[in-house]
Amino acid sequence: MAIQSPSLEIAGAAPVRALTPASRGYWQSVRRRLGRDPVTLICTAVLLLIVASALAAPWLGLADPYKTSMIRRLYPLGSPSFLLGTDELGRDMFSRLIYGGRLSLFMGVTPVACALLIGGTLGITAGFSGGWVNMMIMRIMDVFYAFPSVLLAISLSGAMGAGAENTLIALTLVFIPPICRVSESVTTQVRGFDFVDAARASGASALTIVRVHVLGNVLGPILVYATSLISVAIILAAGLSFLGLGVKPPEPEWGLMLNTLRQAIYVNPVLAALPGVMIFITSICFNLMSDGLRAAMDVKA
Amino acid sequence: MDALLSNPDRGGPVQPLLTATGLRKHFPVMGGLLGRTTKVVRAVDDLSLSVAKGETLGVVGESGCGKSTVARLLIRLLKPDRGTMVLDGDPVDEPHGITINELRRQVQMVFQDSYASLNPRLTIVETLAFAPKAHGVPAAEARARSRDLLAKVGLDPNSFADRYPHELSGGQRQRVNIARALALQPRLVILDEAVSALDKSVEAQVLNMLVDLKSELGLTYLFISHDLNVVQYLSNRVLVMYLGKIVEIGDVDAIYGNPLHPYTRALLSARPSMNPRQRTQEAPIQGDPPNPIDPPSGCRFRTRCPFAEDVCAKAEPILTDTGAQEVACHMRVRNSGHTKAP
Q1: How far B161 CA sits from the closest chain A CA (Å)?
Q2: What are the tens digits of pLDDT across the range A241-291?
Q3: With contacts defined as CB-CB under 8 Å, which chain A residues touch B72?
């Protein structure tokens, strides 16, 4: 702690300039608060590590994740040259877990991003327009709400058939209603503020008001909510793969790996649990990060 | 000065700046099984007023009497159920008149809650430049003009332009709100309880600034307040509202010096006295205002009026010119049937 200089104002001298600190914007103060939250920082770092290794998997010099061997099946953890052992077809687990992250993360993030775009637009439209527009959009969303999300995902991808694209579509459809509802409620709240009335009284068009006055105030909470959905999406996608409705073998994907390794659970339980551990770590990191974001953004400016 | 923001005086000095005739706003109360409208809140009921050029019209009344609804109707943040408005000879939102957007360029409003009426994510200069930019003023010019406006409301542009609302005090924020209302160079400014939330010394500063701005920019004010002293200080004419209706309207001296309606008298005598020898002796008015969902028949004030008679329940008093002011009371109408009628 620096000692404050006692004489900033000296008689006869010109006044000291710019003692007032520069004003901070909202996002700047959010970043500052995030920097003081170790849990969020650690979770973000772990997530970055998982994402980066998944993205860079082909260049990491890993073993071929598709290469099978009848001889070296179900090696335990720590075997020489197989750090995390081998799976039921003798493929290198470490390599498959890293490669599996590519599909699993993709299946987790993409549907949420698509749903954020569609559901967010619908929700903000509903919230800002009010009246019968709101009524129509939200009642349609209520129809989707009638089904439990897992059941909806299963029935949609069951109806469309297995495959990664169909899983993506099914998951997007599952996530549109909750994101739409959250967007609608925060937008309705913001619309009630006087500054929106003042903007309307200035004669600006609805689109300009939404762009300048509404988006900046609703995007934060919507994004936080969407981040918390990524973990759900990863788990749902893994669940669909586990049921045989998602990714097809031999693609490495955490949910599918859980499925194929479950026969080995009595032979090598630790090995069989590894894909689950990856799903757990990733989703809990996403959840804790979204909690941290919420806490950092919640403080009234 | 670009043509977009200049508002020429069209009708001449005699033409009132804003005339509203028969304004009515009933809010539906949803209820029942399918969200049907079961009842209506009669917030504003067939209210007519006109604001002359260059004057300050004060609007007073209890909470919930429809003052703010009137303000929002006049700037068309609410759509009236009925009634017409004429701005300087131009009918508003009519085939041969001006559009609502035109109206909003010439009529602006200052809200009561200084914090809620500023976007917390925008800097002060961004807030001030928003309306001119929406009307096509180039961004750089809008920002330059916003800095001038800040100086005009007594805030140093160098230290306030790039600040956020939460970094300002209540009085400073309300100055920004006033500057925002002036950004489109309006002719009429509606001040809806604009100084009510400020503490007394700041309130006095802002009031004096409003007086200065008015003469400097040739503004007309519609000043809504529940503070009778402030209204007396600022207004040329005063309008007294009760339950969505005008009970009395006239020059400030007539209303404060010789109030004719029992409600106006009750309001004025409820003011705390500055002189300890002249304490307010009794509660001049009893009870709460009746529910506007189901207002009393005839005169709406009769349930609390000490002079109420049978005629007050039967017929609704209409605004009658008494010379100095107009008043809606049976006691002031010849042969109305009231025993105190002249």
Answers
A1: 10
A2: 888 888 888 888 888 888 888 888 888 888 888 988 998 999 899 989 888
A3: 197
- Asked if B119 lies within 8 A of A195 by C-beta distance, the reply is yes
Name the nearest CA neighbour of B187 among B314, B3, B29, B5.
B5
B chain contacts of residue A197, beta-carbon cutoff 8 Å: 72, 77, 111, 117
Element (H, E) at B327: strand B325-327
Distance CA B228, CA A47 (A): 62
Kindly report the three-state secondary structure assignment for every residue of A8-32.
Answer: CCCCCCCCCCCCCCCCCCHHHHHHH
User: Which of B113, B162, B184 shows the shortest C-beta gap to A202?
Assistant: B184
- How far from A169 is each of A107, A114, A236, CA to CA, in Å? 10, 9, 13
Let me know if domain A34-298 sits in CATH 1.10.1040.10: no
Domain B15-121+164-332: CATH superfamily is: P-loop containing nucleotide triphosphate hydrolases (3.40.50.300)
What pLDDT, in 10s, does the model give residues A144-195? 888 888 888 888 888 888 888 888 999 999 999 999 999 999 999 999 899 9
pTM above 0.95, yes or no: no
Taking the CA atoms of residue A112, residue A257, residue A57 and residue A47 in that order, the dihedral angle to the nearest 10 degrees is: 50
